[in-house]
Design a protein that fits this description.
Blueprint (H helix, E strand, L loop, with lengths): L1 H20 L14 E8 L2 E7 L2 E4 L5 E4 L3 E11 L4 E2 L6 E7 L5 E4 L8 E6 L3 E11 L2 E5 L3 E6 L2
Parallel strand pairs: 4-12
Antiparallel strand pairs: 1-2, 1-5, 2-3, 5-6, 5-9, 7-10, 8-9, 10-11, 10-12
Length: about 160
């Protein structure tokens, strides 16, 4: 008899624990989030580079090519959702981080004003570097781009 009582009590406790742990008050469930599967960088609505289905596609060639001394911007960052739509994350919990493989080739001014998803690029000296972007959300990366090649050439 005691064995049956303990089994019933254990089962009830397990069900209560499961119900409480599956509560949907998690920050990720509070709003409808887009899940990024790619991104697009553009200037004045002209695409510079897109990453979609794991493939980088440049507007021309195999890199973003800039003449030495050029300033480009604002560069708009948009992400590609699973359904193919472009979106810009909204809310203070989102941000953009970048990393350059080699300093001195380009300089990046980020963010522009209060816009985390815009930046300016200055072509400092002839050479090549890569730029990697991270969509940050509440302290962790929701999306990391492939290495984007930026080549600065002599004018």
């Amino acid at each position: 008899m005691k064995k049956s009582y303990f089994l019933t009590l254990f089962t009830a406790a397990a069900l209560i624990f499961t119900a409480v742990s599956c509560d949907s008050n998690d920050d990720h469930d509070d709003h409808d989030e887009e899940v990024p599967v790619g991104f697009q960088l553009s200037v004045n609505s002209s695409m510079l580079v897109t990453q979609d289905s794991g493939t980088l596609t440049y507007a021309s060639g195999d890199a973003i090519e800039l003449p030495a001394g050029a300033e480009v911007g604002p560069v708009d960052v948009q992400f590609i959702a699973e359904d193919g739509d472009l979106f810009t994350p909204e809310g203070g919990e989102y941000g953009l981080q970048y990393e350059l493989s080699q300093s001195g080739v380009i300089s990046v001014e980020h963010p522009l004003g209060n816009n985390q998803f815009q930046f300016n690029v200055s072509a400092v000296e002839v050479g090549e570097t890569t730029l990697t972007l991270d969509l940050m959300h509440d302290g962790h990366s929701d999306f990391e781009s492939q290495a984007i090649t930026v080549r600065v050439v002599q004018n």
